[in-house]
# Entry
Amino acid sequence: MRAVDLIAKKRDGMSLTSDEITWFIDAYTAGNLPDYQAAAFLMAVCIRGMEREEIVALTLAMAHSGEVLKLSDILGGYAIDKHSSGGVGDKTTLVVLPLVASCGVPVAKMSGRGLGFSGGTLDKLESIAGYDVNLTTERFEALAKQNGIVLSGQTAQLAPADGKLYALRDVTATVPSLPLIASSIMSKKIAAGANGIVLDVKMGEGAFMTNLEDARQLARMMVEIGVDVGRDMIAVISDMNQPLGEAIGNALEVAEAIETLNGGGPMDFRAHCLEVAGYMLRLAGQGKKWTEPEAVRELLVSHLDGGQALAKFRLLVEAQGGDVRMVDDPSRLPQARFVETVNADQQGYIANVAALEVAVAAFELGAGREKKGDAIDLAVGIKVHVKVGDQTEAGAKLATIYANDAVKIATAREHIVQAIKFTDAPVDPLPLFYDVIDGN
Ligand code: URA
# Structure
């Protein structure tokens, strides 16, 4: 086969065979194709799209470009995983993993770092002193077996083709292609070895997908890939027009996750976690257990309010070398030097809390990184205390800024003022979820 022929075929809008796609990905991963041919291939896919069979072939080729874990063998049963397409204040993994594990379903998850305005679970976890996110595959498997919970960074051996292609997509304007996004996400999920996967596809101005139709299409595509390769799949489409919960920023989000694991936390975030964890249990029950949504909800609520989920989180932190005193007393987490509130200068109803603008505020305080490898400040960020639909008085506390550099406070304040819009007429709250796409 010749790469140039496959690029031409896709350029002309024809479908590639599985063998052709696998050959291309294998050759590129092995270093036998130059970046410029891979870039041309990506652009052809971006413009021409792919059929369902092609997307599955691309996903499998990337998944098998490195090591593929057999999690169900390691865990001795059904392995469940979750993935979020990324959003502002999204610390869901920190709550749902221990919550699901506390119900007796083992969870072993590999997460990523944040880039740009979207945060990453690994950075959040590193707010806990000593927490080791760089586990070897052997240690990852051993902890999964021993504790029924492990949460670490993705090893370099997991879907390396995706790593190489993603770096090219970043600089060739080919990131937004739905087949490329779907295959990229699913290749890592499949290589990580779960039997069942719950996808949390975010929709809104603070997400990759800014409208419901695109979010549905991406969710459907990923569900189809999973189903075609024998996985149990559920995708939820959740709101990302306003931040999830109150906290945006690494240590602040860990503290909010601990509060939620302790039976408290912001109502929207708690409700979101209960829903996602419920779907994880539903898949893990394989149609025999956890089939009654109300009973599942009651079980999960009892584990948040009764301390079982928090105990699992504590075990996770301890096993990965983290300082459990920070879990027992979150005021020991990294703290910002300056704490300032933003108050309402008018009364009214909250019409908008623009997620992206709030993310920019947190980013400018130092909570996010511009490019891979940049240092971030774990202590800084924003807490937004209002939601769309809330009625507020003049002078009410809208947000709190946590900064380590006094000079940056004014800019953060400007972004927050820009983000939060008022109106005189009552406004409906935003829904937490827009749709559910069930692979069954
Ligand atoms: N996350 C991924 O892993 N890949 C994409 O292409 C987009 C988001």
Notes: The chain has a mean pLDDT of 95.
